[in-house]
TrEMBL record, chain A:
The chain crosses the membrane at residues 6-25, 34-56, 76-105, 117-134, 140-158, 170-192, 212-230, 242-266, 286-305, 312-330, 336-357, 396-419, 449-468, 489-514. GO terms for cellular component: plasma membrane. The keyword Ribonucleoprotein does not apply. It comes from the Bacteria. It is found in: Cell membrane; Membrane. It comes from Chelatococcus composti. Residues 135-437 form the NADH:quinone oxidoreductase/Mrp antiporter transmembrane domain. This is Multicomponent K+:H+ antiporter subunit D.
UniProtKB/TrEMBL annotation, chain B:
It comes from Chelatococcus composti. Pfam families: Oxidored_q2. Keywords: Cell membrane, Membrane, Transmembrane, Transmembrane helix. This is Multicomponent K+:H+ antiporter subunit C. It is a multi-pass membrane protein. One of its GO terms (cellular component) is plasma membrane. It is found in: Cell membrane.
Length: 545, 112
């Protein structure tokens, strides 16, 4: 039974080792590299599922955390600690599913469009795994930087002036945000003398009054760094161009990057500024709520104004971010539970949209000219052989390809807009139920004004997405007199259909999923579980400097 | 000493912020570098300023007050390495952008 403890480090070690090993394999051996990458991602998914099972089998409210893993087995408070709970394992599985889908999609052509795609891909997974599992703020910074560095490489994958320009903006913004991250972390360390999240949660309520202002400043600066990542208005203007410029499978993985910001905000606000935090309880909640509302307004107008489909998808990411941020700001357990369901559903469907856009745009413009140029630039030595394989592969035209794409497009539109019968509806329904029943279902309770604004905006943003998607869909599928039959491979359609299929499963098994997210939300609202699990023995000594 | 350090951090941050708001990519890189120096000094200062105190505890019973806090020093080291690597990456992207667009404006073309 003891070896299962070590499973906790697999989501970090496995991609690291795979990514490093892939560096050593020559760039021309695409098939081998793709196979290793695929195998590693599948293993990651398996590990994620096992970890999720472990996390879910802990009795709800039993006082014990799923698992904490002290690297090097130093005593708690001194060690670097990895923590597994329901939330972390949910995110791990989500990332692995998404990675698998976009990896399979990229195998059709994208993975050959530039050097070291597979290594960078694995390093991205390593950074994400670490960010979800880590139990202290500084390692969070390190894993965040690994994720970002890998995302810089992936964003530029495929090359071209547009990618380089938006890559430049993306990197500059994120470097500046990382500096804010460091300032926030060091301020918090300066006041409390600890970086371990559980230890911080113990120490925060007993921070002396004249230090409290400094601590709040530190937490706020740290929060800004994550909000840049989550794309909150007015910090999210970089997002739509960058996501639009990214290659389709990269854009699909990037959807989860904004959710990392949301994940950390959710974890930290509820852990550090949850109910036992004394004077600091609820710190930042109002800012998140209004920030989320502003993001929703901005993104809704953005969706309506978008002509290009890539930009539309970028704003759909922002809508999802805005909804989640506002839900985190409300901080109510039932809202958070709905928000987690929404997080899973919207991530899967937005990723499917990113991949779908590439295929649909192929129906509009037959020549994928940019791709051809980049493949020429990078695959020079094996030019002729490459051409042949390309012809052979792309030559297989799927019958009724356009019909399949149209149906998939319609499903994604339903998912994003939150219409029945798909999981987008269940997710929004769960969030709205939480918002409109603040005292619990059937209990009377006062609904504050901002919540009404939020409810209206959540519904309105879904409507805006519906309008925008239908407009684009009609223009693409119905308007052309002589539609260009897109050349679509089965490996490209399969991951999209699989993601939509997963959303169907989410709909059918909504009861199970919601009871999981409910348990997750309850655990998040009970920081004592987390603290006890990490520090052990529930000691509450508050050594404040 | 506190005043000197505070002024140094302030000047670095001020110059850095001004530079990253400028339109040239070279100014951007220098600005980000200055900012990262400022942040590194700031992290260091958050471990409290001590003169002539070793950062590592000796064996046996010791008074922690005699030593400087080693954690911020470790953090600064990590931050320097990561900042260095990401800045190098940014430089490469800058050069590519300059080569592709023929302009060192951050938008790839001069604003009119």
């Amino acid at each position: 039974m003891d070896w299962t403890r070590h499973l906790l480090i697999v989501p970090i070690l496995l991609p690291l080792v795979t990514g490093a090993a892939l560096l050593l394999i020559d760039e021309t051996r695409h098939t081998l590299k793709a196979f290793i990458n695929l195998a590693s991602t599948v293993l990651l998914l398996v590990a994620g599922l096992v970890l999720m099972h472990m996390a879910a089998s802990v009795p709800d409210g039993g006082g014990a955390l799923a698992l904490s893993y002290a690297i090097g087995d130093w005593p708690a408070r001194f060690t670097i600690v990895l923590v597994l709970d329901r939330l972390a394992s949910l995110m791990l599985v989500l990332v692995a599913v998404l990675a698998l889908a976009s990896l399979i999609f990229s195998l059709a052509r994208w993975h050959r469009a530039g050097p070291h795609f597979h290594s960078i891909f694995q390093f991205l997974l390593m950074g994400l795994g670490g960010a979800f599992l880590t139990g202290d703020l500084f390692n969070l910074f390190v894993f965040f930087e690994i994720t970002l560095a890998a995302s810089y490489g992936l964003l530029l994958h495929g090359g071209g002036a547009f990618r380089v320009r938006s890559g430049l903006h993306y990197i500059s913004i994120n470097l500046a945000a990382s500096l804010l991250f460091l300032i926030g972390v060091s301020l918090i360390y300066g006041v409390t003398g600890s970086l371990n999240m559980a230890d911080l949660a113990v120490r925060l309520p007993v921070v002396r009054e004249h230090d409290r202002m400094l601590l709040q400043a530190g937490a706020a600066i740290l929060g800004v760094a994550f909000l840049v990542k989550a794309g909150m208005w007015p910090l999210g203007f970089w997002l739509a161009p960058a996501y639009m410029a990214a290659a389709a499978p990269v854009g699909a993985v990037f959807v989860v990057l904004t959710k990392v910001g949301v994940y950390i905000l959710l974890r930290l606000t509820l852990l550090l500024f949850g109910s036992p935090a004394g004077e600091l309880t609820g710190f930042g909640g109002v800012a998140l709520l209004w920030g989320g509302i502003a993001t929703l307004i901005f993104a809704t107008s953005g969706v309506l104004a978008s002509q290009a489909m890539g930009r539309l998808a970028g704003y759909a990411v922002l809508i999802s971010s805005g909804t989640l941020l506002a839900a985190v700001g409300l901080g109510d357990a039932s809202v958070v539970s709905g928000a987690l369901f929404y997080l899973v559903s919207s991530t899967l469907s937005t990723a499917a949209l990113f991949m779908l856009i590439e295929l649909v745009e192929r129906a509009r413009e037959p020549g994928a000219d940019l791709l051809a140029v980049t493949i020429e630039a990078y695959g020079g030595e094996e030019g002729e052989e490459e051409e042949e394989r390309e012809d052979e592969a792309v030559g297989v035209v799927m019958p009724g390809a356009l019909a399949v794409l149209g149906i998939a497009f319609g499903c994604v539109a339903l998912l994003l807009a939150g219409l029945p019968p798909l999981s987008g509806f269940v997710a929004k329904f769960a969030i709205l139920t939480g918002m409109l029943n603040p005292g619990g279902l059937g209990q009377p309770g006062e609904i504050p004004a901002p919540v009404w604004v939020l409810v209206a905006l959540v519904i309105l943003s879904g409507f805006a997405i519906l309008v925008a998607m239908m407009r684009t869909g009609m223009r693409t599928f119905w308007a052309p007199v002589q539609p260009v039959l897109p050349r679509v491979l089965v490996v490209e359609v399969a991951p999209i259909l699989a993601l939509i299929g997963l959303c169907l499963v989410l709909t059918a098994a909504a009861g199970t999923v919601v009871s999981y997210t409910d348990a997750t939300a309850r655990a998040l609202h009970d920081p004592a579980t987390y603290i006890g699990g990490v520090l052990g023995g529930g000691e509450t000594s508050g050594g404040v400097r | 000493m506190e005043l000197t350090l505070a002024i140094a951090i302030g000047v670095l941050t001020g110059s850095g912020v001004w530079l990253i708001l400028r339109p040239r990519t070279y100014q951007l890189v220098i600005g980000l570098s200055l900012l990262s120096y400022a942040v590194n000094l700031f992290i260091f200062a958050m471990g409290r300023l001590r003169v002539g105190a070793a950062p590592v505890l000796a064996d046996g019973v010791t008074n922690p007050a005699d030593y400087a806090d080693p954690v911020p020093q470790a953090l600064v080291l990590t931050a320097i390495v990561i900042g260095f690597a990401t800045t190098a990456l940014l430089l490469v992207v800058l050069l590519v952008s300059r080569g592709l667009t023929g302009s060192d404006h951050v938008d790839g073309r001069e604003s009119r």
